[in-house]
């Protein structure tokens, strides 16, 4: 997901010389780890394309160009709410640049040095890093890019002061800067061209034009590296999947795409969460369209991996795979217990981040357990005291926990199924309402509330899990995750 653009302008935040503004704006604007435009090839006649110059990614003999990656980013993110916020920010920056040129405003090295020192003092005072270069390094922001945005911040200040008739050294607020820039854009006018911007222009304001390539580069700067790496991986994987199936015609692939879209449409219509909202409306809310979905490699990967496994396996062979790895499948997808958790952070040796010991956390939870008379009590106390934000937002809900549920500590899983096994030994196959704990795990101590037991699935249900595992194995064999090298980690 694209990092949301800040509500205030870049220059407004930087002009405050505050560390928090620096963090929110620069890291949000530039993304962690990817901040520079790939360098232009120095030698157009060189024999082999180079990663970071011509290529965005490579996996053995499969290469991916920046053009291919950018096309995906524009379709996947270009008209999403976050993408449009990124476009607004890019337009602001380019308009500032144009106005500075028109007004012949230049930022001196002395001005940059002074503001740099102010920001560095804030960082040191906050204990974030030993100096600003160290902070930028740990944030994944290059010095050159930071200085360019800092220059535009000072330009914004100068233009606003001039418009308001203020002296060069007179204080100016962020609200004044934002108000001036918004009124300037309104006076200039802003035109947004229709997606997918076939004429090459995304937006314009007077003489400033945002091209598709400008916008794609800005999206690359705003996306977290993990998202960019995933996009590269998907594009290369899609290519390898198609190469593995040379007998699959374009017409057949087109039919499979439409069948998958229809399946997703039917699934949306049957889901009570959407209360009659159409699949197309859900896509529109995300800034997507049916054309964007059809072009997305994630759809092709889902279709082609299913097609490959369905061709290779019938019911008998699926049962053979299940029998060979029964412990894996039963552990992950077999019977489970609905579980809730109230978590307190703890450590063997308290520190600034975890101020209590395991023993202290256990004592607190013993007191809380005495106040629990129902699941409603547990949920209320979880909302008040639990220090795990993810489960707390769900009333403590961990979902259905199986014997090998990923993301659930082993000690917790063992406690849940020890309670279930003990109940069965007593002739009862129900643990709902049981409270367990305090239980220690790596990051703290928790109480557990157990709900209904989910029985083991039918074979028809388990067969779909076996198919899913076979698809996962097939995709990993086709393109191991660590085989993709991008310009981000070369």
Quick take:
57% of the residues lie in helices and 11% in strands. β1 and β2 form a beta hairpin. The protein has 21 helices and 10 strands.
Features:
single chain; 3-stranded antiparallel sheet; Chitinase A, domain 3; 11% strand; 490 residues; alpha+beta; 10 strands; 4-stranded antiparallel sheet; disordered N terminus
Characterization of the model:
By secondary structure, this protein is an alpha+beta fold. The chain has 3 domains: 10-224, no CATH class; 226-326 and 463-486, no CATH class; 335-455, Chitinase A, domain 3. It is 57% helix and 11% strand. It is built from 21 helices and 10 strands. The strands form 3 sheets. A 4-stranded antiparallel beta sheet has the order 7-6-9-8. It has a 3-stranded antiparallel beta sheet with strand order 2-1-10. A 3-stranded antiparallel beta sheet has the order 3-4-5. Helix 3 packs across helix 9, helix 10 (225-244) packs across helix 14 (297-312) and helix 14 (297-312) crosses helix 21. The longest helix has 23 residues, at 81-103. It is globular, with a radius of gyration of 28 Å. It starts with 9 loop residues before the first helix and ends with a strand. Residues 1-41 have low confidence and may be disordered.
């Amino acid at each position: 997901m694209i990092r949301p653009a800040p509500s205030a302008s870049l220059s407004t935040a930087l002009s405050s010389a505050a560390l928090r503004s620096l963090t929110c704006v620069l890291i949000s604007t530039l993304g962690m780890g990817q901040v520079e435009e790939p360098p232009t090839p120095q030698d157009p006649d060189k024999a082999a394309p180079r990663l970071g110059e011509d290529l965005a990614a490579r996996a053995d003999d499969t290469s991916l160009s920046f053009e291919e990656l950018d096309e995906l980013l524009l379709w996947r993110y270009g008209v999403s709410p976050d993408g449009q916020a990124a476009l607004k920010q890019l337009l602001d920056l380019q308009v500032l640049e144009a106005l500075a040129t028109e007004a012949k405003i230049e930022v001196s090295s002395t001005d940059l040095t002074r503001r740099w020192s102010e920001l560095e003092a804030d960082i040191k005072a906050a204990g974030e890093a030993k100096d600003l270069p160290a902070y930028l390094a740990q944030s994944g922001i290059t010095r050159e890019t930071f200085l360019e945005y800092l220059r535009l911040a000072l330009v914004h200040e100068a233009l606003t002061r001039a418009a308001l008739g203020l002296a060069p050294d007179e204080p100016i607020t962020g609200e004044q800067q934002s108000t001036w820039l918004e009124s300037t854009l309104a006076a200039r006018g802003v035109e947004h061209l229709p997606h997918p911007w076939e004429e090459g222009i995304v937006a314009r304001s007077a003489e400033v034009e945002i091209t598709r390539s400008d916008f794609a580069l800005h999206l690359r700067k705003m996306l977290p590296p993990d998202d960019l790496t995933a996009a590269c991986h998907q594009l290369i994987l899609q290519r390898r999947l198609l190469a593995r199936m040379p007998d699959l015609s374009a017409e057949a692939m087109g039919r499979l795409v439409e069948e998958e879209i229809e399946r997703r449409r039917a699934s949306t219509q049957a889901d009570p969460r959407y209360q009659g909202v159409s699949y197309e409306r859900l896509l529109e809310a995300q800034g997507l369209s049916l054309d964007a979905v059809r072009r997305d490699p994630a759809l092709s990967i889902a279709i082609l991996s299913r097609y490959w496994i369905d061709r290779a396996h019938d019911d008998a062979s699926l049962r053979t795979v299940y029998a060979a790895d029964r412990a894996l499948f039963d552990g992950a997808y077999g019977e489970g217990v609905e579980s809730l958790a109230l978590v307190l952070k703890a450590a063997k040796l308290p520190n600034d981040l975890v101020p209590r010991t395991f023993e202290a956390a256990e004592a607190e939870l013993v007191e809380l357990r005495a106040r629990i008379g129902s699941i409603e009590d547990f949920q209320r106390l979880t909302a008040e005291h639990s220090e795990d934000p993810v489960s707390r937002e769900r009333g403590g809900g961990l979902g259905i926990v199986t014997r090998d549920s990923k993301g659930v500590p082993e000690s917790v899983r063992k406690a849940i199924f020890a309670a279930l096994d003990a109940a069965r030994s007593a002739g009862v196959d129900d643990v709902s309402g049981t409270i367990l704990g305090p239980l220690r795990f790596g990051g703290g101590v928790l109480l557990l509330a157990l709900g209904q037991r989910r029985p083991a699935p039918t074979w028809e249900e388990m067969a779909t899990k076996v198919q899913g595992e076979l698809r996962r194995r097939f995709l990993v064999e086709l393109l191991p995750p660590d085989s993709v090298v991008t310009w981000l980690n070369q």
